[in-house]
Amino acid sequence: MAIPYWRLSGFYFFYFATLGGFLPYWSLYLEYIKFNALEIGQLSALMVATKIIAPNLWGWIADHTGKSLRVIRIASFFAAVIFAGFFYKDSYLWVAMITVGFSFFWNAALPQFEAATLFHLKKEPHRYSKIRLWGSIGFIVTVLSIGQLVDILSIDYLPEMIICLLTMIWLVSLITPETKVTHKTENTIGIFKIIKKPEIIAFFFVYMLLQLAHGPYYVFYSIYLNQFNYSSSIIGLLWALGVCAEVILFIFMKQVLRWLSLRNILLVSIFLSICRWLLIAFYVESLTLMIFAQLLHAATFGSSHVVAIHLVHKYFGEHHQGKGQALYSSLSFGLGGMIGSLYSGYFWDLYGAWFVYSMAAASCFIALIIAYIWVGREKQQVIN
């Protein structure tokens, strides 16, 4: 069966277009409706905390029913419906409740779609980057357009923009074909035997630390730039620049995977992550250095994420892909992202941005040591 390239790409486009509305602007919106730094950090932590539970629950359902697209459609529908609750009122308790309800479904969709994409690709996993890059393009389009609209109109209209994108995710999921998974055999390795391996534990710990480091970037980067008089348009351009670098990397990722092993790509990515957070910590007033720091997003997220997808595909096999992608999402983006959001919210006013981003660099340094000792040493894998 032919790969449904445009339908897979379309889902990524609208999913990450929605993320492009959240990451640069949601913290600014929460600040606009009078929440303080600690509350913004807590609300952001709630959004990512559901990734600890939701992907694993939905991943178990998807793997046991073999209906990953049905799970994605249900999750996408309820994410859009519950998000409409943000229009009702903006008290802290209400926003917290809607955040948890919305994100419980929102965070379920992507890990299962990653697994569905790899099932469609079968023996051609190297084509993943060419499909995933459309997510980055969607992010760029939204970041730039919303930045302009916020400057012209008001950030008060942000929820309306996001709910339109959430609706498009659901509509695209309806036209994406279901994947067919072969039945388990007696020789299929159990999930618990897989996750007990030292290299798997190290893998998850490394990615948890990497996402912990991204916490203050996702929550406070726009606020940080705004404090130094960067306009919404410039803030949007800087976010878009980082993802443009990611798109270029995705275009050439097949060649990179032929030249370098997954292990070496990961080690270089983590080292460049340390450099990026230190630049943001101490040189925010320099637009030139902020541009350079954003170009490093190709490594700090782009290449490290591609390595993770390939390693999960390798470690968990066909019958545990849903659970494997869910564990990757929940332990890295979920647990790591929650800790990163909480610590950045707590220390932001207490010690300042330089301390928060220095902590991010320190967590990446620890990740570099762990990755160097444990991840990928058993086989220097190069993708053909």
Description of the molecule:
It is a single chain. The chain has one domain (5-178, 189-374): Up-down Bundle (Growth Hormone, Chain: A), CATH 1.20.1250.20. The protein has 384 residues and is an all-alpha fold. It has 15 helices and no strands. The chain has helices spanning 5-22, 26-32, 37-65, 68-83, 92-121, 128-152, 158-175, 191-195, 198-227, 232-259, 262-282, 287-295, 297-316, 321-351, 353-374. Helix 10 (232-259) packs parallel to helix 12.
Number of helices: 15
- Annotated CATH homologous superfamily: MFS general substrate transporter like domains
Low-confidence stretches: none
Q: Let me know the largest β-sheet.
A: none
Q: In one word, what is the shape? A: globular
Mean pLDDT score? 86
Termini Cα gap: 22 Å
The CATH topology, please?
Answer: Growth Hormone, Chain: A
> How many strands in all?
0
The CATH architecture assignment turns out to be: Up-down Bundle
Structural class: mainly alpha
The percent of residues in helical segments reads: over 70%
Number of domains: 1
What is the string of SSEs from the N terminus onward?
HHHHHHHHHHHHHHH
Query: What portion of the residues fall into strands of 2 or more residues?
Result: under 5%
Please identify the top-level CATH class. Answer: Mainly Alpha
What radius of gyration results from the CA coordinates? 20 Å
